[in-house]
Every structure is written in structure tokens, then in C-alpha cells.
Amino acid sequence: MIDLSIICCTYNNKNSLENTLNTVLLADTSNINIEFLIINNNSTDSTEVIASEFIKEFTGQGRYLVEEEVGLSNARNCGVKNANGEYIIFIDDDVLVANDLFTKICKEISCSKPDCFGTKIILKYPNKQPNWLDDKIAYIYGNMDLGNENMLIENPYISPLGPCIGFKRSVFDDLGLFDTQRGLKGSSDVLTRGEESEMVDRIRKNKGKVLYIGSTQVYHVVREDRLCKGWFLQRFEYSGVLAGRHIKKKSLERAKMYKLGLIILNLFGSLFFTERFNFYILCKLMYYQKMTLGA
Predict the structure, then answer these.
(1) Label partner for 207 (CA 20 to 30 A): which of 8, 25, 56, 151?
(2) What pLDDT band is residue 183 in, cutting at 50, 70 and 90?
(3) SS3 sequence of the chain
(4) What does the alpha-carbon distance between residue 165 and residue 58 come to, in Å, rounded to a whole number?
(5) Domain 2-225 indexed as CATH 2.60.40.10
């Protein structure tokens, strides 16, 4: 049986995809029965050519598939349906993988037998981290760093992130596929994110194990057009709207209290705090305002 199925979904991102696949070719896959699936989500660029070249060079089993229904969840579900591995790993088409990524993952999951796992994710900026960006909210760019140790994630508010996240194959058999109402759709960077975290929530409700693998990592390349406050605030706005759709009464009352405190901090922030901390407050305020909107 295949040990690992690696799935990379892509949409009109040929240059970044090529960089990702080049690092996969350099990664150690010795002693691993591995397959790599590239899911083209109806791209109009030269994705097929890049995928074909990769498959020729890849030492494991390489496959190229097309999912015509635009949407990241659709593409991921296509990958799941065609994967043969006991464990399935999703990597984004804009990551650079560490040389030991697959060997370290195999070693850890063979010991821990998790239902879901994610690795450390280190952000790679075009130049440097913006002065206004606090590390505490860098997870919006996909940052995931809980240290170098491997451990179960007990905190229900912390989940593995999409740039490198994996699942036991049987999870999809037992709990179903990704919610196609969530996930990016083509080039539209809008409200419909969160399909990974929703799947992790299902796993936790089913008493499954969620693992963090800190002994290896991927590097998530941050796009230059996203290095602005407007894009960042919009992401917090969208996240707040999504959270507000499912919030419970007790949590809603707590959210209103947080919002009030943040309003006060925001009013006086320019007098006492740094630009970085003030922007952190503004992002959190946007999140709680949208979460409690109309409540």
C-alpha cells in the first residue's frame, strides 16, 4: 500500500508551482512508498506543462489530474478520491518543502497514528516582515510555529494550517469530504475560507487525535501583493463574519466584552502604543465587530 499521498492543488500559479515542485524533487523520499498528485483546478496557464516535467523527474508515482469545478475544496476532494495512501498530505502551490519533510512526517505518524497533523510553517517574505505586522497575527499568512517538538494539539482553538496539513485516509471515509461551500474559488480571495479548520473540528468532535510535527517544516512564500494593511484587515473581516455565523450565545456575550475593550484600546492606542500593536488591536477589533454584527 502507498504510505503517503501528497496532493498539491493549483490554479493559475505556474511560477510558484514550479518552485514548489523543484523543492519536492530535492526532498528525501528514500524508503517511502509515495505518490504525488497535482490537481489542476481549471488553470489557463502552463500548469500542465510544468506538471508533466515534474512527473518525468519524480522518483515516486506522479499523477496529473484536472478538476473542472473551480474551488479549492473541489480540487482537494478530487485528490482524496484518487489518492491511494494510508495518509494524505496537502501542500500549497506556494510553499518550499524542507529536505526531510516527508521522512520526518512518515517517522512521526508511524509512531503516533494521528487522525490529522500539520507541520511547522515558516513564513518567507519577499524582503522582510512588515514593521506593522505583529507575530501574534501572522497566522493569517499561514504561519504555524509551536516549537520544534512533536506534540498532540489539545487546544481546540489551534489547528494545523493549509500550507501543509495531513489526514489519515480513513477520516474522509468516516466523516466525509471537505465542505465545498468553503475554500478559495479561483482567483477570488473572499469569504469562503476555512475548509481545513472545519474538517479538523469534525475530527475533534469524533474524538480524533490532532498532531503538530515541529521537527520539520515548509516555508510559505508570502505574495508581495498581500503585504498591505488593507488585505490583512479584509481577512480579519471575513474571518469575523464566518465566526459569527456559528457563534453560540455564551460565546457571543464574551465576544461583545472583548469588542468593548478593543474599542477603548483603539481610541487611545495612538497615544500609548507602537504602530505594530495598534494594528494588532485594529485587526482584532475588526474581527469581533463582524462576529457580533446584528447580534
Answers:
(1) 8
(2) low
(3) CEEEEEEEEECCCHHHHHHHHHHHHHCCCCCCCEEEEEEECCCCCCHHHHHHHHHHHCCCEEEEEECCCCCHHHHHHHHHHHCCEEEEEEECCCEEECCCHHHHHHHHHHHHCCCEEEEEEEEECCCCCCCCCCHHHHHHHCCECCCCCCEECCCCCCCCCCCEEEEEHHHHHHHCCCCCCCCCECCECCCCCCHHHHHHHHHHHCCCCEEEEEEEEEEEECCHHHCCHHHHHHHHHHHHHHHHHCCCHHHHHHHHHHHHHHHHHHHHHHHHCCHHHHHHHHHHHHHHHHHCCCC
(4) 21
(5) no
Q: Residues 193-204: pLDDT tens digits?
A: 578 999 999 999
Do the beta carbons of residue 252 and residue 292 sit within 8 Å? yes
Higher pLDDT, residue 208 or 181 = 208
Q: Where are the domains of the chain?
A: 2-225, 229-291
Tens-place pLDDT, residues 91-133: 999 999 999 999 999 999 999 999 999 999 999 999 999 999 9
